[in-house]
Amino acid sequence: MIQGSMVALVTPMTPDNALDWASLHKLVDWHLEQGTDAIVAVGTTGESATLNVEEHLEVIRKIVDQVHGRIPVIAGTGANSTDEAVELTAAAKAVGADACLLVTPYYNKPTQEGLFLHHEFIARAVAIPQILYNVPGRTGVDMRPETVLRLAQVDNIIGIKEATGDLERAKTLIEQAPADFVVISGDDATAVELMLLGGKGDISVTANVVPAAIARMCELAIAGQAEEARAINDRLLPLHAAMFVESNPIPVKWAVEQLGLIQSGIRLPLTRLSAQYHPQVKSALQSAGLL
Length: 291
Description:
- This protein has 12 helices and 8 strands.
- The radius of gyration is 18 Å and the shape is globular.
- It has a single domain, classed as Aldolase class I (TIM Barrel).
- The protein is about 45% helix and about 15% strand.
- About 50% of the residues are buried.
- With about 290 residues, the chain is of the alpha/beta class.
- It has helices at about 20-35, 55-65, 80-95, 110-125, 135-140, 145-150, 165-175, 190-195, 210-220, 225-240, 250-260, 280-285, and strands spanning about 5-10, 40, 75, 100-105, 130-135, 155-160, 180-185, 200-205.
- The longest helix has 17 residues, at about 225-240.
- It starts with a strand and ends with a helix.
- The chain has an 8-stranded parallel barrel, surrounded by 5 helices.
């Protein structure tokens, strides 16, 4: 169920930073038309850190209702409080999410045992498929492969979004985890290579602007068609780089705005893309044939 191109969807906002439901509806329709395999709602790219709980759940609910079972909807429900993560995960299940994505607890820097117990507790508390999310560059804590392999034995924990870009680590997890535990890239630049090693997909920022290309790239890579998959990725490398010239989702929201799909809203403490990066992002969009 969970594989292929999974867009880490931006959350559209109006210039005064209210949630823009009309644009969200348009985005979801576009991704369905373009062949996106799953939608990740309210993750890092979806500004989960700046939405209140009511908004967070309403975004998930609206996407679930619109998708209507055609592709999986994966809800971002991680938190640095275990109780809060349980609450969000249970609420996401109640509004119809197919699975949840749980980032490692940020800021408080738990031990490896703390990470294990945190995720084990949530998995036992809420009966919904759960995907671990390791992104130490943002959270300040790295979930080590041995901890992931322990958690891979826990009911309801079905996979990991590994965002370090470390292919040796990914290879270890793919080879040593149970066969039904999915390893998913969280790093667009190295996603093709992870899938060629046996990974099952890419939770992608770049898919916000080129969903059809990322979907095809993932399909080819998962099928082991390395030359064809790498050829697509090589064309997209300037775009992958441009999406991270400032903190995600600053560049990608500006890029999607340039495509006419969303308005300019982004919530503090995030800001609109600095003017000095406009030429680089615009050039990357042009090189991908988008402008």
